[in-house]
Write a structure and sequence with these properties.
Structural class: mainly alpha
Organism: Globisporangium ultimum (strain ATCC 200006 / CBS 805.95 / DAOM BR144) (Pythium ultimum)
Radius of gyration: 18 Å
Largest sheet: none
Strand content: under 5%
Number of helices: 15
Protein name: Rab-GAP TBC domain-containing protein
Pfam families: RabGAP-TBC
Oligomer: single chain
Helix content: 55-70%
Distance between the termini: 32 Å
Low-confidence stretches: none
GO molecular function: GTPase activator activity; small GTPase binding
InterPro entries: Rab-GAP-TBC_dom, Rab-GAP_TBC_sf, Rab_GAP_TBC_domain
Length: about 260
């Protein structure tokens, strides 16, 4: 899987974003990026959470700190239902590598509000739903592994929450995470069904780890196997990871949008 060449993301990503209508109230929010007057309207706990997470964001350069703060404040001011949720900082850090603040805010709005179905609201209802979908997919495609994990007391929310809310950006190598974002943005017209990309990547990881997980004797060994897998992935070359992403792509193509919607209902 080639994906979008890195040097072209600065112009390809904005084109992909324009495939869906711009939210009606976004221009006002973009104005907020230029100043801090709207910050006074936010709950101080939200501002504090944003500032704390900015300091913990991976691969954030010093010149991205102020833009990240402005965009997250602008998003929280615009969308009071979501406000701010952990994981948004990691997504935004990647967006700011290839976009200016206005484009990054638009991309964040589309990802959080359109493509990822209610992953980041307080109830995380969309996240719970897609964890249940992941559970159903594993049960249908590998009942032995599903039964084993269930008997060990593990559920998909324990295993998959971090993967989904960060779009795998904190788990896979950065160049691999970028290709996950490529696949999401390439499906903007699918709206909430685009999150089948994340479901496909997640199920692919379970398939790749199958033998290790079946050998695990308790929940701790399962989590250790998953963490060790990601540590190994971080050291792999682009060519090796492209083979993994090709496998993910094949799984994603089998997860047709209508199938995902049926599982969610």
């Amino acid at each position: 899987m080639v994906g979008i060449p890195d040097e072209h993301r600065t112009w390809v990503w904005p084109i992909l974003l324009r495939q869906v209508p711009t939210p009606a109230n976004l221009p006002r929010t973009l104005d907020f990026c230029e100043g801090g007057e709207n910050e006074m309207l936010l709950d101080r706990e939200i501002v504090k959470s944003i500032e704390n997470d900015i300091s913990r964001t991976r691969n954030l350069t010093p010149d991205q700190v102020a833009p990240m703060r402005r965009v997250l404040i602008a998003f929280a001011s615009r969308n009071r239902r979501v406000g701010y949720c952990q994981g948004m900082n990691e997504i935004l850090a990647i967006l700011l590598q290839y976009m200016d603040e206005s484009e990054a805010l638009l991309a964040l709005v589309l990802l959080i509000e359109v493509l990822l179905p209610a992953y980041h609201v307080d109830s995380m209802i969309g996240l719970h739903t897609d964890c249940a979908v992941m559970n159903t997919l594993l049960k249908q495609n590998d009942p032995e592994l599903h039964t084993h994990l269930t008997e060990l007391g593990l559920n998909m929310e324990i295993l998959c929450t971090k993967w989904l809310v960060t779009c795998f950006l904190t788990s896979l190598p950065s160049f691999c995470g970028l290709k996950v974002i490529d696949m999401l943005l390439a499906r903007t017209q699918e709206k909430q069904r685009a999150s089948r990309v994340l479901l496909g990547v997640g199920i692919s990881i379970f398939f790749m780890l199958r033998e290790n997980l079946l050998e695990a004797k308790d929940a701790g060994e399962v989590l250790l196997a998953v963490n060790e897998y990601f540590a190994r992935e971080m050291a792999k070359t682009t060519t090796e990871m492209d083979k993994f992403l090709d496998f993910c792509q094949a799984i994603i193509e089998q997860l047709q949008p209508d199938i995902v919607e049926d599982f969610r209902s």
